[in-house]
What we know:
By secondary structure, this protein is mainly α. Helix content is 76%, strand content 0%. The chain contains 3 helices and no strands. The chain has helices spanning 11-22, 24-31, 35-62. Helix 1 (11-22) runs antiparallel to helix 3 (35-62). The longest helix has 28 residues, at 35-62. The two termini are 23 Å apart.
Amino acid sequence: MKKWDFKNNPLFFTMLGMLIGSAAGYIEEWTNIPQIISVAVGFVIVMIPLFFWIKDWLKKKKK
């Protein structure tokens, strides 16, 4: 496993998404981007490992 292999180590995406989601209020104060958009971006980033997992599961199921 490589050091930056995101498919096998989803911790980076999970932590980044949680950090963005938890800082959504501060992001809104500093940039005037609505809080719901920041939370949605964080949610999408958290879901990236789930996408990789489902994609790999479907490939294995197809074989």
